[in-house]
Amino acid sequence: MARQCPRCGSPTKIKGVSGGRWQCGICGYTWPREEARVGEFFAGVVKEANFWKKLSGYIKREKAVETKEEKKVIRKKPSSFALIMALIGLFITFILPIDPVAKFWILIGLTITTFIFAGSRLTTWGLAILCVYLFFTSIPMGQGLMERLETEYFSKIGISFSDIQKNLFCRIPCIISSAFSTRTPGVDIDYECSKQCKIIEVPKQGCVDCLVLSVNARTKPVMIGSAEIIDINLKMESNADRNAKNIWLEVMSEDGIPPTEHIACTSENKCEIEPGKSKTVTVTYDSVTCKKTAGYNWFKYNASVTYDYGVGSENKFDVKQSTITTAQLYPGSTKGEVLSRSTSGPLSLSIGLNPEYVAGEDRFAYVSIYFVNEGFGIANLSRIEVLQIPPSGYSGLEWENCLTGYHFRGAGVSYENNRLTVEGNVDWLKKDESDAITCKFKIPDSIPVSKLTYSFKGNATYSYTRTAKEEVRCVES
Questions:
Q1: Is residue 310 within a helix (H) or strand (E), and if so which, with residue range?
Q2: Structural domain of 345
Q3: Which end of the chain is more exposed for a tag (fewer CB within 10 A), N or C?
Q4: Is the pTM of the predicted complex or chain greater than 0.70?
Q5: Residues 362 and 284 in one domain
């Protein structure tokens, strides 16, 4: 059994000295050889039997030790077991299927506890990073702050935190794991992982935020308790391909107080704007209520615009007659999916499919309908229609089934007369969110001609809501 210093716990540099004693070469402490023989294994453990010190033992901690010769500084040796247990605890806490707010406060509590009682820098930093991540991705206040920073500042230099998050925590691990697994030859790993992580770049024709919202308060600063007039300008981009319909504005102060006067473009009196046109709506507060923030008084309010819009796209693939009698090893084309171009609007629609199939070799064709919210608001899909257009004189491909994404789990899906219809309870698509519906069609065993072309034309209607958060400095009269 190895000797161990009863004071510092060091098992090394123990040597015998005169007087029948042992001496530690680290801290200089001496003790009788009988103590070493009886308790050389348990002495250090008993003196250091403190849970928090053991948990943080893998961190460099300094302790001054007074000896007869000199004052030395002892650095505790790292504890691999404590490190592993701490990391396992962090991981389990992070993946627990509980409310994000509760998880956030649990991690905050662990961070403070670890810092106060253990002084563990590594564990504290790990917990702090997880808390920051949860705050900006799961807590409404953090999400709002991140969205505002991204909208007002980072978007101007091309930085998207949601894309960074998806790449860091989904796409890169997917590529690494796929590189070491068996896969179908010819399949693009990067594209498949991007699709799995919902990082889809849809070709676009026309504007994205086609209805531009601009808010301007006439009096800056405004006197506390006085009236304020707010001009809200709605401008439709000239490269929009349709009108924005059923437009209505909602203005609300931070205290939930609506304006005293608001006539045009309300929920009862909706309006419509054509491409290239604009409209200014004026609302009035007879008496503004201000709150003190960071040493100043502010009148804060939100202006939200909701309107109905539509989006469409079209794609096609060819079915060719096979000239080979043997079937492929992997049924289904591996040429790579091609995405169609979407029309204008904040919500993009794209139909993804392989451009070519071979009758007798490919058993099924897969058609994916992608939806990507590229604007700064939220989209609510109301109805989706995808029409299969077979070659003239031929019937459409036989429909097998459709797999819907998370946002469509409550919607009704039907297929009749070559028309796919999705309507009902569809979840809102927030900024940078995307989802897809993938349908399966049966490829015939043979065709009477060398090639047949099947087209798919998709259209969707949705309502879109975007909110501008504004504030005006208040001064006393």
A1: strand 296-321
A2: 310-462
A3: C
A4: no
A5: no
